[in-house]
Amino acid sequence: MKKCALLLSLPVIFMMTGCRNDNVQVVNGNSAYYWSTVFHLGQQQRDFIRQHKISRLYVRYFDVVMNEEGLPMPNATIQFSDSVPDDIEIIPTVFILNDCMTADRSDLAEKIASRVVQMNDTHDIRNVKEIQIDCDWTKRTEKHFFGFMQSLRETLKNKGLSLSSTIRLHQLASSPPPADRGVLMMYNTGDFTDLNCQKPILDTEVAVPYMKYLSGYPLPLSAAYPLFSWKILFRQKKFVGIIHSEDEYPIIPTDSIVIRDVTIEEVLKAKACLQNHRKDINSEIILYEMNDKNITKFKENEYKEIFAR
Fold first, then answer.
1. Model pTM score
2. What is the DSSP string of 214-253?
3. Three-state secondary-structure class, residue 94
4. Residues 6 or more apart whose Cβ sits within 8 Å of residue 265
5. In this structure, are residues 306 and 266 in contact, taking their beta carbons and an 8 Å threshold?
6. Which of 177, 199, 204, 227 is exposed most, by the fewest CB atoms within 10 A?
7. What is the overall mean pLDDT for the chain?
8. In this model, does residue 13 exceed pLDDT 70?
9. What is each CA distance from 253 to 234, 235, 246, 257, in whole angstroms?
C-alpha cells in the first residue's frame, strides 16, 4: 500500500482515552479495505456491503511519515463525513513508512494507540476490537519494527485491543512480527516502474516461490486480494509516475501511457493457490480496496466467486 501526501503543518495532539476488545485472533467473513482521506459510504458502496455481507472494514486512519526534523509524524488523516454503520466492525489501519523505523520511536507506539482511540471517541466509532499496522519493513528495519510492534501490542492490550500486521509475500520468509494475527497482501507482485512488466499488480506465478513458507507461518492469516488498477506514464521507456488525475503530468506525444489491471481469473487463481497451501487462509476474504470504481470492476456473480468458501 503506497500512499503519500503533504505533511501536516500543525502539530498533532495525542490524547489518552480508553477502549475495549475481545482480543479475537481467528477471523471469519467478508471484508474490505477503505483507503481514502474521506470516509463517506455512497449508495453504491452500501449496496455492495449489503449484497456481499461485508462485516468488517479496514479503514486507513492516517499515515506516519518523516518530517523535516527526521521525526515520525501523522499525515493525511482521514476525515469522517459519514457515520459508520453500527453492524460493521472497523479495524483502524495505520500506514507507516519504512524509514520511520530508523528514527526515534521511543513513544511512537503510545502516540499511535492514543491517537486512534481519540479518533474513535471523537467520531463515535464503537465497534473496534483491533488496530492494524501496515509497514513494508525489510531486513534492515526488521529489528526496529519488531520492537515497535511489541511495544504497541502491549499498549493495545492494556486498552483492550488486539494488534494485526500486514504481511507482504517477501516477508513470509522472515520471522513474523509480534502481532495477534496477519493479513497477507496478495498483490504488488511485480515492478510497476518497469514498462515490460505486464502484471505488476497480481501475477500468481511470481507468488508461487513464496508458498513454501505459507503452511508453517506461525501467525493466524487472512488474505487480501486486489481490485485496483494503475494508469502509468512512461517517457522514453522510463517510469514517470502513476496518473491519478488528467492534469497530474504534462503529456508529450512520444510518451507511453499503459493500464495495468487485474482480471477475475487471476484473482481466483491466486485464491486457489493460497487455499492449496493453507486451508484456513480464506476464512476471511478481504478486498483491496472498496471504492465506487473498484467495486464495479467485476460482475456480481464474480464477486460471489471471490467470496465463496
1. 0.90
2. TTT--S-EEEEEE---EEEEEETTEEEEE--STTSS---T
3. strand
4. none
5. no
6. 199
7. 91
8. no
9. 11, 10, 15, 11
Q: Rounded CA gap, 83 and 70, in Å?
A: 35
pLDDT tens, residue by residue, 27-55: 899 999 999 999 999 999 999 999 999 99
Per-residue pLDDT averaged across 63-82, rounded?
95
What type of residue is 297?
K
User: pLDDT tens-digit profile of 202-255?
Assistant: 999 999 999 999 999 999 999 999 999 999 999 999 999 999 998 999 999 999
Q: Which residue has the cell 493466524?
A: 220
Rounded (to 5) percent helix, strand, coil in the chain? 30, 25, 45
pLDDT (average), residues 135-155: 97
DSSP string for residues in 131-194: EEEE----TTTHHHHHHHHHHHHHHHHHTT-EEEEEE-GGGGGSPPPSSSEEEEE----S-TT-
**Per-residue DSSP letter, 301:** H
The residue among 221, 234, 253 whose CA lies nearest residue 192 is: 234
Average pLDDT over residues 181-209: 97
CA pseudo-torsion sign 142, 145, 146, 147: positive
Distance between CA atoms of residues 84 and 93, nearest Å: 15
Number of Cβ within a 10 Å radius of residue 71: 13
What grid cell was written down for 78? 482521514
